[in-house]
Records
---
Amino acid sequence: MLPERIERATIYHFVTGFYARVQEHPRLGPVFNPRLEGHWDAHFERLTDFWMTVLSGVPAYKGNPFQVHQALPGLSPDLFEDWLGLFAETARDMLEPALADHAVEKSRRIADSLQQGLFFRPASAS
Ligand code: HEM
């Protein structure tokens, strides 16, 4: 069962744990590190807002992840696989099981929809 109330501190702790692993990852690190150097604290706050909104419905995050990722060079379906794998591993290590499952499920759906927009090009449009 999901916890009745999801604490921001729990999500902040998870977000910082996830991005600590991202920074060390051989393929994800090089995409994130140059972009977020000197701005990691703001990113943690923003991503905590994002996951609070996704996981518990509080209206904390305002933004457009699609636009942000569209502007990033070098994204690929393989990189999304890496991201999703690391996210699931971190969620299972750091969150209680029901919340981890919920977060993993949401991450897959959001990644699918981002990838539809980023990589899917209908043949008729080419
Ligand atoms: C290959 C996979 C991914 C890579 C390499 C990636 C990389 C990045 C980077 C570098 C930023 C910071 C951009 C900036 O502020 O300049 C960012 C922002 C963000 N990412 Fe990702 N990302 C990936 C997948 C995802 C997925 C699957 C999600 C959601 C489930 C996600 C959610 C976000 C959000 C919410 C932001 C903040 C957007 C904003 O500023 O409003 N990302 N991402």
---
Amino acid sequence: MKLAAICEFLESLAPTATAEDWDNVGLLVGQPDADVTRVMTCLTVTPASAAEAIARGADLIVTHHPMPFRPLKRITTADTVGRLLWELIGNRIAIYSAHTAWDSAVTGINQQLAESYGLTEIQPLLPSSDATLSPGSGRWGQLAAPMTLEWVLSITRNFANMERLQYVGDPQRVVSRIGVACGSASSFAEPARRVGCDVLITGEASFHACLECEASGIALVLPGHYASERFAMESLAERLSQGLSGVDTWASEREADPLRWF
Ligand SMILES: [Zn+2]
């Protein structure tokens, strides 16, 4: 398939016009009329995921986090971004990112996260101004029956396949309305509190954001940035396999969370 046709398919899943203003999305590296037969999805282009893409003959990386993200004045091997771009371009590997457009998309990361808790009446935390393109960012919804925060913690731990996770709040607190915002999104705590959420699930939050949530009375569940988003790279790879004929797609097997527990 031509790269341009794959970009069109990705655009239909996550319209790039719905990305946040500061974001850098769409086709970031590549030649639209190139032929693509092998596609790897990953959360981030790292030395490990780039090496895997090269070793397994990928023609395209669909990365959640954009690469490049900030404007570049040079591409040399003197820094990590330059070195990875140099290697990928040298191997004729294109790079596409949907990032915040995929976070917010109708079937994107936050919708998938909300559904994993069995929420009903799922709505965006920040509705978009043009609902024909995207519902908006973050999600909130209602549990079928009130549960404890401890229950939310155990569901999150199972979903993220982790032994431990951080949280703010009383584990015995009863919760019925849940907000979700993948990645580093504690800024959604206030909109979540305003619509009556008892808890916000996001990847990570700063110490001061945690204190603010504790003071304002909304619980936080923090499985980590990686765990809050990486699962959606597997589901994206499946969607690409189903939607694109003659293209082999897989989610990176070598990338991993850089944070470890001791
Ligand atoms: Zn992220």
---
Amino acid sequence: MDAEFWLSRWREGQLGWHLPATNPHLLRHWATVAPDSTRSVLVPLCGRSLDLAWLAGRGHPVRGVELSPIAARDFFALAGLSAEVTHRGAYDVYAGQGIEILQGDFMNLQAADCPGLGAWYDRGALVALPPELRGRYVDTLARVLPAGARGLLVATEYQAGEMQAPPFPLDAAIVRDTLQGHFRLELLERVDALADNPRFLERGLKAYHESCWLLERR
Ligand SMILES: C[S@@+](CC[C@H](N)C(=O)[O-])C[C@H]1O[C@@H](n2cnc3c(N)ncnc32)[C@H](O)[C@@H]1O
């Protein structure tokens, strides 16, 4: 699952993960995770998620990071916003209405690329990465987030092998193993989400859960 895998998904418009509304887990849990809306929120592997606009609407400065320039352009165009494009570090930065999308590889992110972060939100990011990239992803988060920064992680859970990843299955043991070196973890909720995801039923899953984790940078 290299960059070309994702770039071709964007070129071909195969965006099965994209939700037409704000993610319900974000709506339910964000006030617990990040009550202070003056803090900047990092959204790794953000796609063109409507969650960016919801977070900005609560007052947060929002910093998404996304490989695909199509995603960055589409986000602003579909929201009816104009974006100014500049360059910072390893990224082209699309910016408008308090939202920046840093277009490039998340694994290159440095603290200077996104100053002032206080929170982060991961839906469709860690679960999109194969196991061998999880360590780099978490090291990158740890490099750019200050101690005390809080985040919401939405993890997908199903029997490994029942469908072709991504998303990859991340049960509680994997989440703890992957993140506990840098983060304190609390499981907020685990819900049966099969009925809400007919595309996974079609791909053969018999059971599918989503877990919401509150994480705090040590
Ligand atoms: C499963 S999608 C989820 C998108 C978004 N979080 C959402 O919920 O709609 C994963 C996204 O990560 C992007 N991506 C994959 N690897 C990346 C990387 N190394 N750096 C930045 N973006 C990446 C892909 O282009 C894709 O848009």
